[in-house]
From TrEMBL:
SUPFAM superfamilies: Class I glutamine amidotransferase-like (SSF52317). Keywords: Membrane, Transmembrane, Transmembrane helix. It comes from Chelativorans petroleitrophicus. Residues 6-80 form the Aerotolerance regulator N-terminal domain. This is DUF4159 domain-containing protein. Residues 703-921 form the DUF4159 domain. The chain crosses the membrane at residues 6-27, 60-78, 630-648, 660-677. NCBIfam families: two_anch. The keyword Transmembrane helix applies. The keyword Membrane applies. Pfam families: BatA (PF07584), DUF4159 (PF13709).
Length: 941
């Protein structure tokens, strides 16, 4: 049975309760005056007989009331106290109090202060000096000894700090002070959490001459703190931790707030029995996740329950552009494959829906990316170049990768960090070494300075930078021979960065290394419009001023006088000089959070103590004196007794109470508004749309297209030549092409045709930039354009010295295209064996080579009939006037003579056309003929 703890300050007064019977007897001898009532029928007799009557005794209830009143007065004088506190036996020469006031003490700080106050009050009664030390303060704090009043003043001025405790430094100070107080009592008021250096700190403190130790710790460690957060591709994850050893399951609500403090998302984090770490997920859109400024936990009022987010926690939007894509069956050859894999976990990747650069770049810029990655992009159209440069100067980061197209293109200094060495179009201008070059140590002036160079990475090809006075400053990574591998340069508020190798593993093994992922991640972290403040400050050793600090209760407050500027780094500790919070200014801030992602909250185990130990828990002083309430109760009974005496004496008249009942009810008819019936969506019209008939006709049968130049005679020859080649294909092969298709490259859809024949004429109008961009996109998507200058006997494509007007016009057209390196068709190329075995590709003229994309990475081995390579050349160039040799009239006779007049030259021209079409439609199938003997053997043939 539990009894209410009760004590009396003057227990001798309780003997007065024995006098209650005497009081009862006195009350019966002197009853109060009774009330008199006049009976109307006996009014006359009342006038005759007048005598005073005294009742025999007072009412019992009045006597009981007065006895209770007397008992309350006696109890009040005995000074009763409910829940009297136990005084700590402090028998030493003094009292030393060591109080943890770190971040975990904030939720029950008042309870801890109340506990320390009781210890100081007990020391006051014993006249003992007090040492008071707080473990989250600076080691140079004044710790005493103080008298009790001074100690109480310092305790009441103390407050919890949003930083970890520093027991080693503070315990050393207390140990030195205890030398002057031998035999003192020590009170250790802990927060219950273990910290680095505890073992040595306790050993030094407890090694002093102590009389006793009072060990006070929390009843339980029930708080939850935030350890980490991650802005993942599809969600935002929050990691929470709680002290180890908590067996009860628990759920908390974590919420995300924006810069105005508005709650915009939340999630439930569930801890299972015995779990000390749990994760919650916020499934919100990318744009909303980038508005997160802080993460908090409901119901937790300490610094560990608030985690701040800066630009490092926000996912960047990165645009990707490539001039060519590999076949879907060979993703590893895609120039964007390794870039997607590297940036996918750290950024929101967007790609344009249009292949043309004139539409792709504006589409990306509209989405306001932090960075744009260009994989082997050569020449940029003038219409989009200025907008791209303006975006860079406003803070964007342009990341470029080299490749054959970049090597062959004319370089724009504004879009390159360094000047590049040019090369011949047929060779690509790439560097070749006898042995692959490794990567050397990263320069200290770049963002990769703290990374270890990848020793396993080698580079076999690169684009070279021209030597200049600032080449060293702009080099972020280099090879063993000193040539740059990665260069970067500022452009206004932004920057341009160039990898001097391709983004796929053809020129180097860098894209398949882990260092490539880290390099791209760091570059993207630099790529916000105002720049990454933390990285810039770290690079320049800049110190950031405190901007907003996290208080001990988990709220953002202005910085205090103790806060000092912070030098951002991954291992910057949280101290009183650099408390958790935001550092920087309104232009940009860096988050300095309390807990590390891998933090573990281990309970503090009590060390071995060689002196007597008393254990206790934090608690308020719950003792309640009852003297005041008892006196008030006695006064209330005294007032009630006075009223009763007046009522019995007839001094008060009864008043009749009239009952007044009012009933009011208001009937309200709530009219339901008719439900709004949503309008039904109109069905899409089944009527044919404009252009459907042309699309159906173009895709129902294979058709060879030719460019309408605007010169009627030339367009007529082109049409007759394509008709003649189609007729020859139908007679000699299984392909039955449809009617020739004349296309306007500025308006017509080009993707329907596998091959477009383009005769060049200097008198034809120059195509617009938009038309050239559409041809460029057509070539990138797998189509092939056959350019025919028809000038073999004036000046061919590869001729030296003066060039013909047609060749000059072709050069003007190609200057707006991203043309790969070219070479004459090799003797082991698939084109020479696609259908007929050919060693040249004549037309109306002969002698000019057929130029195709150079197969730089292809092989030709003795056991394979043709050179192996990937993809089909997007461009062919000749000067032999192929359409003139193919052209036939309405009767099927040749339209134009060959030069020289050789009947077999026309036959070879047709065969060249057949090989070109077979190559276009079947690709490199001939390169797999090496397997034919094995297949025939298995078939038993």
């Amino acid at each position: 049975m539990n009894f209410l703890p009760l004590s009396f300050g003057a227990p001798m007064v309780l003997w007065g309760l024995i006098a209650l019977p005497v009081i009862w007897w006195l009350l019966r001898l002197t009853p109060p005056r009774p009330q008199q009532e006049t009976f109307p029928p006996l009014a006359i007799l009342a006038r005759i007989v007048r005598r005073e009557e005294t009742p025999h005794k007072s009412p019992w209830w009045l006597t009981l009331l007065r006895l209770v009143l007397a008992a309350l007065v006696i109890l009040a004088l005995a000074d009763p106290v409910v829940n009297p506190r136990e005084r700590v036996a402090v028998s030493g020469e003094g009292l030393a109090i060591v109080l943890d006031n770190g971040w975990s003490s904030a939720p029950d700080w008042d309870r801890r202060v109340a506990t320390a106050e009781r210890l100081i009050e007990d020391a006051r009664e014993n006249g003992q000096p007090v040492i008071l030390a707080l473990t989250a303060e600076r080691p140079a704090q004044e710790i005493g000894p103080f008298d009790a009043d001074s100690a109480l003043q310092r305790l009441n001025a103390a407050e919890p700090r949003p930083v970890p405790t520093d027991r080693p430094a503070i315990y050393a100070r207390v140990a030195d002070a205890l030398v002057e107080l031998p035999g003192a009592s020590l009170a250790i008021l802990t927060d219950g959490l273990a910290a680095p250096g505890d073992e040595a700190a306790f050993a030094e403190l407890l090694g002093q001459n102590l009389s006793e130790v009072l060990w006070i710790e929390p009843d339980s460690l029930s708080f939850v703190a935030l350890a980490d957060s991650a802005n993942e591709p599809e969600r935002f994850t929050v990691t929470a931790v709680r002290p180890e050893g908590q067996n009860a399951p628990r759920q908390v609500v974590a919420y995300a707030s924006d810069e105005q403090g508005r709650r915009i998302a939340e999630t439930v984090i569930s801890f299972g029995p015995g779990e000390a770490r749990a994760t919650g997920r916020m499934q919100v859109p990318f744009e909303l996740r980038n508005d997160f400024a802080s993460i908090g936990i409901d119901g937790e009022s300490h610094a560990g329950a608030l985690r701040l987010l800066d630009e490092n926690a926000r996912r960047r939007r990165v645009g990707l552009i490539a001039q060519s894509e590999a076949d879907g069956a060979q993703p590893l050859l895609s120039p964007l494959y390794y870039i997607r894999r590297a940036l996918g976990p750290y950024a929101d990747l967007v790609e344009p829906s249009h292949p043309e650069l004139t539409e792709a770049i504006p589409e990306l810029l509209e989405q306001k990316p932090a960075a744009i990655v260009m994989a082997d992009v050569g020449t940029l159209p003038d219409s989009v170049r200025d907008s791209l440069v303006e975006w860079m100067h406003a803070g964007g980061t342009l990341i470029r990768f080299a490749g054959p197209r970049m090597a062959a293109a004319e370089h724009d200094e504004e879009l390159m960090p360094v000047r590049l060495r040019g090369g011949e179009r047929s060779l690509g201008g790439a560097l070749s070494w006898s042995e692959p070059q490794p990567v050397t140590d990263f320069p200290p002036n770049g963002p990769f300075s703290d990374l270890s160079p990848p020793r396993e990475v080698t580079v076999s090809r690169q684009v070279l930078a021209e030597p200049s006075a600032d080449i060293v400053e702009r080099t972020w990574a280099s090879l063993a021979d000193g040539t740059p591998l990665v260069t970067g340069a500022p452009r206004g508020e932004g920057r341009v960065i160039l990898f001097h190798v391709t983004p796929e593993a053809t020129w180097s093994t860098l894209p398949i290394s882990g260092t490539f992922v880290e390099m791209l991640r760091r570059i993207v972290q630099l790529s916000r419009n105002q720049g990454n403040l933390a990285a810039e400050a770290q690079d320049s050793a800049q110190r950031l001023a405190p901007y907003r600090m996290i208080s001990a209760t988990g709220t953002l407050v202005p910085p205090g006088p103790e806060a000092e500027p912070l030098t951002p780094s991954d291992d910057a500790p949280v101290t009183l000089a650099n408390p958790p919070g935001y550092y920087g200014s309104e232009e940009g801030v860096v988050a300095h959070n309390l807990l590390e992602p891998d933090v573990e909250l281990a309970p503090l185990a009590r060390p071995e103590i060689p002196v007597p130990v008393a254990e206790a828990a934090y608690a308020f002083d719950e003792s309640r004196p009852l003297k005041g309430p008892l006196i008030l109760a006695a006064l209330a009974l005294l007032a009630l007794d006075t009223l009763a005496v007046l009522w019995l004496g007839g001094q008060l008249r009864r008043r009749r109470l009239r009952r007044a009942a009012t009933a009011a009810s208001v009937l309200a008819a709530v009219l339901l508004l008719p439900l709004m019936v949503p309008d039904r969506a109109l069905a899409q019209s089944d009527e044919p749309q404009p252009g459907d008939a042309e699309a159906i006709a173009a895709t129902s049968v294979t058709r060879i297209a030719y460019v309408i130049t605007g010169v009627s005679s030339l367009d007529a020859v082109s049409r007759a030549g394509i008709r003649g080649l189609s007729q020859f294909l139908a007679e000699k092969t299984a392909l039955e092409p449809g009617e020739p298709a004349g296309v306007d490259i500025a308006t017509d859809e080009l993707s329907f045709y596998p091959l477009i024949y383009w005769p060049i004429d200097a008198g034809a109008p120059m195509p617009s930039e938009q038309a050239i961009a559409r041809i460029d996109a057509y070539m990138q998507q797998g189509g092939t354009v056959l350019f025919d200058t028809r000038d073999q006997y004036s000046a061919g494509f590869g001729a030296q010295g003066a060039v013909s007007p047609e060749t000059q016009r072709l050069r003007d057209i190609l200057s707006g295209l991203n043309v790969p390196p070219l070479e004459p068709v090799p003797e082991d190329h698939v084109l020479t064996k696609a259908f007929y075995i050919l060693d040249e590709f004549p037309g109306r003229y002969r002698g000019a080579p057929l130029w195709v994309e150079a197969s730089i990475t292809a092989e030709s081995r003795a056991d394979r009939p043709v050179r192996t390579g990937d993809g089909v050349t997007p461009i062919m160039i000749t000067g032999n006037d192929l359409a003139g040799a193919w052209a036939i009239d309405n009767s099927g006779e040749p339209l134009l003579p060959t030069v020289p007049s050789d009947p077999m030259q026309r036959v070879y021209a047709y065969r060249a056309g057949v090989n070109i079409m077979m190559y276009m439609l079947t690709g490199n199938y001939k390169s797999d003929q090496v397997h034919v003997p094995a297949i025939l053997e298995r078939l038993g043939q």
